[in-house]
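A protein record in our archive is deliberately plain, so that people and models can read it alike. The record that follows is passed on verbatim for readers who wish to inspect the format.
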Amino acid sequence: MFDINTGAVLMAAVAHMFIGFVWYSPVFFGKAWISLMGFNVDTPEGKVAWEERQKSMSKTWILTVLGAFIMAYALAYFMGMFFVETVMDALQVGFIAWLGFIATTSFINTLFTGKSKKLWAIDTCYSLVSMLIMSVIFVLWQ
């Protein structure tokens, strides 16, 4: 059996959230994401709608933090099951977990919902970067 390092899970969850803050900031993909989601913040109505949405985000953020912890714990569990000890192995596990569970599921959802492939690319690449960094955190924190 293997132990899951609670500190590493906490750090990985925080890293996941931090990457999201940066990824979806106006500096990177925030403006494109907002536009692809259909929020036109250039119009007065769109700006008001976006601001109203932002005011009611506390429940969304709480669930997002919970999701980050669950994802980090699950990834740590997989890495422990496979006795991952090197950065290269960690990157492989992170990539395969992303490809097999996140990229495929989200792409199927994109196909059925008719959402933009660009939106899918922004979201799923965030997940890829996050999974890779979390995987490396687990190896380095052994």
